[in-house]
Amino acid sequence: MLACRGFTCSREVLPRRPDARLHRELVRLAKLPPLDLVLSGPSNTRRRTFETHLLVDRSGLARTLEFDAMLRTLRLISESESAAITPGVTMAGAFATRDFCMDPLVGLVLFPELRSIHSAGKRLNPAVADFLNGLGKASEKVNQSRTALLEERSPHS
Predict the structure, then answer these.
(1) Residue 3 reports pLDDT greater than 90
(2) Domain coordinates in residue numbering, the chain
């Protein structure tokens, strides 16, 4: 039997190659032109959720590409017109820089909770418990600083 422990939630962002677009601008997928969107494989729950949302709120995608490896996804985004949808906390380092155009999504009702999964029958090793507590605090700090950056960029959000 497994136990699950959530440690943070994070707004979805749309990382894209940096260019003349505004950085940290709140965007709605329905208002964007069709995108080349990098998605995880079809068995992934997030993939099915995004596809459903995109079919309901948009006329469609230019095309979709499948990668389950985040580093490959980020490299493709940095070298092409492709974009992805990912929890903002996973892009914390890029959010305050111009490495990617990082636009938080509005109208997409997903604030994924990041979780740790472990055996329910065993106590967590104290070092693991400390690590998870630290990870939760660091994630919350990232979320707070990202919120401050957004408020600085888009005070009417």
Answers:
(1) no
(2) 2-153
CATH topology of domain 2-153: D-Maltodextrin-Binding Protein; domain 2 (3.40.190)
DSSP result, 48-117: HHHHHHHHHHSS--SEEEE---HHHHHHHHHHSS-EE-EEGGGGHHHHTSSSSEEEEBSS----PEEEEE
Q: Report the distance separating Cα 86 and Cα 147, nearest Å.
A: 16
Q: Closest by alpha carbon to 85, among 151, 13, 1, 11?
A: 13
> Given the structure tokens 């990202």, which residue do they identify?
146
- Asked if residue 13 has pLDDT above 90, the reply is no
Distance in angstroms (rounded) separating the CA atoms of residues 45 and 14:
18
Give residue-wise pLDDT tens across range 27-66: 777 777 788 888 888 887 778 777 776 665 555 566 777 7
Q: Which amino acid is at 41?
A: G
